[in-house]
Every structure is written in C-alpha cells, then in structure tokens.
Amino acid sequence: MFFERPASGELAVLVHLDLETENEPDDPREFEELVLSAGGDPVAFLSGHRRAPDPKYFVGKGKLEELRALVVEHCAELVIFNHSLSPSQQRNLEKALDCLVLDRTGLILDIFAQRARTYEGKLQVELAQMEHMATRLVRGWTHLERQKGGIGLRGPGETQLETDRRLIRERIKAILKRLEKVRRQRDQGRRSRDRAEVPTVSLVGYTNAGKSTLFNRLTAADVLVEDKLFATLDPTMRKLELPDVGSVILADTVGFISHLPHKLVEAFSATLEEAASASLLLHVMDAHSDNRQRNMASVLEVLEEIGAADNPCLVVYNKIDLLDHTDPHIDRDDKGKPVAVWLSAATGEGIDLLVDAIRELLSADMVSETCYLAPRLGRLRARFFALNAVQNETRCDDGGVVLDICLPRAEFQRLLKGEGLVAADLAMPLGGEPHRESA
Asked: Which candidate, 346, 361, 247, places its Cα nearest to that of 287?
C-alpha cells in the first residue's frame, strides 16, 4: 500500500511454527479457519518447531527453502504466518519469496475490513490499519530519494517515507476526531439509559461461539449468522421485555480471539465500552469446542483490558445439541445464584432457562409491588408510567389507583424521596379496600 509490494492473490500457503518461547501457542485449526473467513484458499500448510524466531526471516534457512518450493509448486501468491512478524521480517520474506506475506495481525485486520458495515465500524478498522501500517514504512520506498526540486517542483524537502508518515499521522488524527464524536453520542445514549434505569445485557465471547444466533433467538432480530470467524463486527442493540424486570437492552458485540491485536482492542474501545458498562455480561461459550477453557481465558483477558472483568457475568454454554447426553439446565452457586446456563441457540433448547436466569439476576435489586396511590399522588403515577414501571392499573371509587409496579429499587427510592414519601405511604388500606378521603 505504501511501498512497492507484489500483487496479492487468494491461493495461500500457511505457516505455523511451535516456538519454545511462546507460552500459549495459537491453534493451527483456528488459523486455517481465519484464512477461510478472509476468503483465502489454503493450498499448503507448512509447520515446524524452533526454539526462537529467526531475526531475519522468522523461519530458518531450511524452512525458507521449503516455503519457496511450496510457493512455486502451487503458484501461490500469498503466504500467511500464524505469528506476528516484524516489519523487516515481512519485507525480507516478500523479497525472498516474491509474493505477498501477511502475519496474523494483518490477516485479522483484513477480515475486519471485509466485515465492517457501519460508519463507526469502518472508522475503527481504518484506524487499526493505519496504526499497523505506520510501523511497516521503514525503508519502504528504497527506490526514491528526496523529492525533486527545481522551478515548479520545489517541495517540503521530505523523503517519500517522511511524507507517508505525515499523511498517516494526519489521517489517524482525523479518524480519532470522528471516533470521539461517535463516543460522545454513545455516552449520551448510555446516560439516557442510565437515567431511565434501563439495564443493559451484553453478549461477549470467543468468535464463532454462537452469540449472533443467540441474539436472534432472544430478540427475533435478523443479525447476520455465518459459520465463520468474526461474522459479526458491528454492534447491534435490541430491546427485550423480561417478566419482573421490564425493558432490557441486549447488545451483540464483536467476538474475541486469542492474542487479539492490542491496536484492535484500542480501535474498538468505543464499541467495547458497551460491554464495560453493561449491567450483566452473557459470556457465550462453544460447549462443543476442545479449546473451551483456553477460549474462556482469552475472553477474560480482553475483558480485563477494557475494564469489564468485575461486571456481573453469566456463562452461557451454547451448542449442547452437538454434545451427547447433555440436557438444558442451570448451574447455581452455593447461594442458589445462577452462574451458568447450558442451551442450544440453534434449536432453542434452554432459551427459557436463560431468560429465567437473566430475570433472576437483574431482578435481585428490583421492586415488584402492588401500591395504592391516593388522588393527590397523580404526579407520582405519571412518573411510574414514564419509566414503563406499571404492569397493571385498577381505578378506585375514591379517585385513587392501585398499581402493580416493577422497577429498580434505587429508582423507586428516588421517586419516593422526590415526593417526600416512604414505602409505607403506598401500602394498601386494611381489608384491601382503598381508603376514601374525606372532602
């Protein structure tokens, strides 16, 4: 993009090394799924073992010759590494192999670029791409010296490399300015929900765990569902009505992955803030995956990075239809509190249990009562309705009303304090008959 490189192609040779210096190596199968999600066509897979990466080519000279032979044999135009390459390693490999070379970060960025649909999503992807590309400009334009001088051609005296760096800095600054505007709009919407005491439930989890399928099942939405990594990139929100809780905002977020590039986490901070500020996190996991625990650790690592590790969380073990002898059920802790739900979003088994668990967790600090409001408390009645807290209303002969209400306890206390009342002032009269006020 910013320096001369061989044209890209779709036929790809994949490279994965087991390095002794890596504490948690990436899964080769997941790597192949990433390439397929990007639209690549893997024609060969080169694996090996090294104590540490080679400083110049990442792989040793023997593996480099094997790699060159595979590229020639399959007429491949793309080599993808399941590792992070330094800018110099990437350029050296491209020169030696005479084809485009991508590392894991570049591959994920390419997938994100394909998946972004909204204005915000495209801005976030471009920001991550620019910040990644900024590190790849060193000695990129080796064929150019300083810009030409002379009449009509006098420039700022920059090299092409310096010009590219300046243009990238300016573009990053412009993107950050636009994203800040998006963030302010999100904050405004979030504050409005906070004022209205509308709980937010965010779906988080490893990519391809079934979050969008579960989201569609709960909200009857039509979010894109594909058996691909990062099928969902742009956040989606829908309102969900729950018994004893009322309106809840359900948010579907981008999937996480092991060793998610830090720049991507930074770029998607505005989106991930929805998870950080959620009243409840639904950590969706693929119960059928062999790497279940490893995937959970990767998600928890990202949640820690965005400041959401301490949020209330309910684990959702999805895809139990792929397991033998596993029925939908709720796991509870020693206090009886729901901690996990086993279900299948694809078939709908256990969805009712999930709704019950969410309702139970969110209604722990809810007020659900029958109140009597005398005629003089008409303003309080209007405020209950404004908060969608009224589930049923019965008018009385004395002009008062009996309301069945459900709302957060903090909001209930705030309304009572504003009217100079206590909960006992809304109690039903003895015998269940409303008291008739004297004229």
From this structure: 346
Structure tokens at 57: 């080519």
Q: Give, in order, the Cα–Cα distances in Å from 9 to each of 39, 40, 81, 87, 98.
A: 10, 8, 15, 20, 12
Maximal C-alpha separation, the chain? 101
Residue with tokens 């009243």: 279
Band of residue 365 on the pLDDT scale cut at 50, 70, 90: low
pLDDT at 30: 80
Q: Read off the tokens for 354.
A: 């999930």
Which pLDDT tens digit goes with each residue over 225-236? 554 455 445 567
Report the SS3 class of residue 51: coil
**Distance, CA of 205 to CA of 292 (rounded, Å):** 11
Q: What percent of the chain has pLDDT over 70?
A: 77
User: To which residue do tokens 């004022």 refer?
Assistant: 195
- Residue positions counted in the chain: 439
User: Which residue type sits at 58?
Assistant: F
Identify the pLDDT of residue 147: 47
Residue 52 backbone dihedrals phi, psi, to 5 degrees: -155, 155
Alpha-helical segments (H) within 220-347 = 262-267, 269-276, 292-305
Q: How many CB atoms lie within 10 A of CB 266?
A: 15
Which pTM does this prediction carry? 0.65
- Rounded CA gap, 100 and 79, in Å? 6
Residue 45: exposed, middle, or buried by beta-carbon count in 10 A (0-12, 13-18, 19+)? Answer: middle
pLDDT single digits (tens) 128-142: 888 777 777 654 444
For CA atoms 412, 417, 418, 420, give the dihedral sign. Answer: positive
- Coil, strand, or helix at residue 409? helix
3-state SS, residue 328:
coil
Q: How confident is the model over 198-214, as pLDDT tens digits?
A: 788 888 888 778 888 88
Mean pLDDT of the 254-279 span: 68
Are the C-beta atoms of residues 208 and 255 closer than 8 Å to each other?
yes
Q: At what angle do helices 104-115 and 28-37 cross, to 10 degrees?
A: 40
Contacts of 301 (CB under 8 A, 6+ apart): none
- What per-residue confidence (pLDDT) applies to 146? 46
CA dist., res. 181 & res. 183, Å (int): 5
Q: From edge to edge, which strands make up the β-sheet containing 100-102?
A: 41-50, 11-19, 78-81, 100-102
Mean of the per-residue pLDDT values for the chain? Answer: 78
Please state, as a whole number, how many other Cβ atoms lie within 10 Å of the Cβ of residue 353.
16
